[in-house]
């Protein structure tokens, strides 16, 4: 081994996140069987599937929050299941589909929870943590609302706070579960544009569950289709064609050519 | 902290032999009947009230974040019912003192284990499942309590009813409860940063690197331990565990590193005041402590609810 070290070419860096022979089931429902793909630095994956096909379940499995029936997920080349939760959270973050706020808390306090994996044993937030929260609130248009109670936010503002919490967490792998829920058109594009730029510039990667093939075509470099019967397909944006999408949704899908790229509409 | 000291002073000064506040230091240091009353009777009782209130408020705050339900209190999972059945059985058998305490502790433990076993089925336990299991077993305990009361002879009945309303007049053997409070508060403070994340949901907590399952177990065990210790000392005193964490959240926010110790302090203070009121309001008759705290707690809780409705 040591003798080879000088002559061997540098190995390609491990993918940020990799699924190997991944099989996921919920009860008797098969989400995927033997799924394999790799999320590499700078890549943005869109995950599409019909209602109840298991997109969120698959995303949670990729996040290490649920064990697969077979196969494994690797983060930075290491088996996700063997990583301590806090170490995992330093590299991988999830924007959940819904947010739960049972108790009063301010916008800034909630965004600060994203810093949890960075904090010490007694949970003391330092200057770096506060700076990260401030930057995250500014990036999501919430800077002026830092001291507001979360319960007073609108649905879209709460969603932006979810984004801010994820930005404060600062992970390399971003798993986004229907990130544009509740967001108006302007924020959909501005937030994803800004995040896509950071993913490209900082060697991060995202996997985004979405119902909007047009949005995926515009913001993603790769596509993962989940058919709901265990079959999956992975590939480049060429997978986003009327035949594939019509089969995916069991409903005809039309492709229109817009000025910024393809637009998909139900037929 | 200051309020707690004032409450202790009031508790020491008030009673059938009033001792002016100005003479308290002298009474504490000196000899004579006043010193005896303060040192041997009033301060230990105030201390018992403080420990009980602290335990209940701490247990309530922990139970609320475990179930992510602001309406949870230390007894929501049926712990007080189990303790009551244990204690009343001992009273019915004509036993007293340490036997009643032992019965209460054993009943509380049985209730905790029962709910845990039932809720921890094949599927993961959701807070809702835990809550429903607790509420249903609590109803079962209530039926048993009614049965015990119906069967009880008249001479045992008064003691049983007083136990059910919460009563500090028989409080003795405080050391275990005081140690439980110290241990519970220390352990809770270690968990506090994780609780700040857990209060936004288990999914959020898990994705931020909290090992949720062991945390849930620790919370359940810790809240149950504190509530069981409180019930053993004073019987099922209501409302402290529900109302105090709410009041502290409104005054000081939801950061558990502050919320937990502040709740323990405020709960202890409230119960010292309530107990002072209970034994002086229509002295020499003593009012049941549980009734007094509920009389204070009901309007306080309604006020909080109304305040919440106007956004805040």
CATH architecture of the domain at 14-98 and 172-266 in chain A: 3-Layer(aba) Sandwich
Q: Return the domain count of chain B.
A: 1
Strand content of chain A: 25-35%
Radius of gyration of chain B: 20 Å
Q: How much beta of chain B, percentage-wise? A: under 5%
Q: What is the number of strand segments of chain A?
A: 12
The structural class of chain A is alpha/beta
Account of the 3D structure:
The complex is a heterodimer of chains A (267) and B (312). Chain A is an alpha/beta fold. Chain A has helices at 55-62, 85-91, 107-112, 127-139, 155-169, 185-202, 213-219, 242-249, and strands at residues 17-26, 29-39, 44-49, 70-75, 78-79, 92-95, 173-177, 205-209, 222-226, 232-235, 253-258, 261-266. In chain A, the strands form three sheets. A six-stranded mixed beta sheet of chain A has the order 6-7-8-3-9-10, with helices on both faces. A four-stranded antiparallel beta sheet of chain A has the order 2-1-4-5, covered by helices on one side. Chain A has a two-stranded antiparallel sheet with strand order 11-12. The longest helix of chain A has 18 residues, at 185-202. The radius of gyration of chain A is 19 Å and the shape is globular. Chain A starts with 16 loop residues before the first strand and ends with a strand. Chain B has a single domain (47-305), classed as ABC transporter involved in vitamin B12 uptake, BtuC (Orthogonal Bundle), CATH 1.10.3470.10. Chain B is 77% helix and 0% strand. In chain B, helix 3 (32-67) crosses helix 12 (256-280) and helix 11 (240-252) runs parallel beside helix 13. The chains are: A alpha/beta (267), B mainly alpha (312). The A-B interface holds A 60, 63, 65, 84-90, 93-94, 96, 99-106, 109-110, 113-114, 116-117, 119, 121-123, 149, 151-152, 165, 169 and B 64-65, 68-70, 190, 192-194, 196-197, 199-201, 203-204, 206-211, 249-250, 253-255, 257, 311-312.
């Amino acid at each position: 081994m040591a003798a080879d070290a000088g002559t061997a070419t540098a190995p390609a860096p491990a993918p940020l996140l990799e699924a190997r022979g991944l099989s996921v089931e919920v009860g008797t429902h098969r989400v995927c069987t033997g799924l394999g793909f790799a999320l590499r630095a700078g890549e943005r994956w869109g995950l599409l599937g019909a209602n109840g096909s298991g997109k969120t379940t698959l995303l949670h499995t990729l996040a290490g929050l649920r064990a697969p029936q077979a196969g494994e997920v690797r983060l930075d080349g290491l088996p996700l299941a063997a990583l301590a939760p806090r170490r995992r959270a330093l590299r991988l973050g999830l924007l959940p589909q819904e947010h739960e706020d049972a108790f009063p808390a301010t916008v800034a306090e909630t965004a600060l929870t994203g810093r949890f994996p960075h904090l010490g044993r007694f949970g003391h937030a330092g200057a770096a943590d506060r700076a990260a929260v401030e930057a995250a609130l500014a990036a999501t248009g919430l800077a002026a609302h830092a001291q507001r109670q979360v319960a007073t936010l609108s649905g879209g503002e709460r969603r932006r706070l979810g984004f801010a919490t994820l930005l404060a967490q600062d992970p390399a792998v971003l798993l986004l579960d229907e990130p544009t829920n509740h967001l108006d058109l302007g924020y959909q594009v501005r937030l994803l544009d800004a995040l896509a730029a950071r993913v490209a510039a900082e060697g991060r990667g995202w996997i985004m569950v979405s119902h909007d093939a047009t949005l995926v075509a515009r913001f993603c470099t790769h596509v993962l289709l989940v058919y709901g019967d265990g079959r999956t397909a992975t590939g480049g944006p060429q997978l986003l064609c009327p035949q594939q999408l019509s089969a995916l949704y069991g409903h005809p899908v039309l492709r229109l050519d817009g000025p910024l790229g393809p637009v998909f509409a139900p037929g | 902290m200051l309020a707690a000291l004032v409450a202790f002073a009031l508790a020491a000064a008030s009673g059938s032999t009033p001792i002016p506040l100005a003479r308290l230091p002298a009474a504490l240091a000196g000899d004579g009947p006043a010193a005896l009353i303060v040192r041997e009777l009033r301060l230990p009782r105030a201390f018992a009230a403080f420990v009980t209130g602290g335990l209940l408020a701490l247990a309530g705050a922990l139970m609320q974040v475990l179930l992510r339900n602001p309406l949870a209190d230390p007894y929501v999972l049926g712990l007080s019912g189990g303790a009551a059945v244990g204690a009343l059985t001992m009273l019915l058998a004509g036993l007293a003192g340490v036997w009643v305490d032992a019965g209460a502790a054993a009943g509380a433990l049985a209730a905790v284990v029962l709910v845990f076993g039932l809720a921890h089925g094949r599927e993961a336990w959701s807070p809702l499942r835990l809550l429903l299991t607790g509420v249903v077993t609590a109803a079962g305990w209530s039926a048993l309590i009614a049965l015990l009361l119906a069967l009880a002879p008249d001479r045992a009945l008064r003691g049983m009813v007083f136990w059910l309303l919460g009563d500090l007049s028989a409080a003795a053997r405080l050391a275990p409860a005081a140690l439980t409070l110290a241990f519970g508060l220390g352990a809770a403070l270690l968990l506090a940063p994780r609780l700040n994340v857990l209060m936004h949901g288990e999914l959020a907590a898990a994705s931020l690197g909290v090992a949720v399952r062991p945390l849930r177990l620790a919370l359940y065990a810790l809240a149950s331990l504190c509530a069981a210790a409180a019930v053993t000392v004073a019987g099922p005193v209501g409302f402290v565990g529900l109302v105090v964490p709410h009041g502290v959240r409104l005054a000081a926010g939801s950061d558990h590193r502050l919320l937990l110790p502040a709740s323990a302090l405020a709960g202890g203070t409230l119960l010292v005041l309530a107990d002072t009121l209970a034994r002086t309001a229509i002295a020499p008759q003593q009012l049941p402590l549980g009734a007094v705290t509920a009389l204070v707690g009901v309007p306080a809780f309604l006020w909080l609810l109304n305040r919440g409705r106007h956004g805040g």
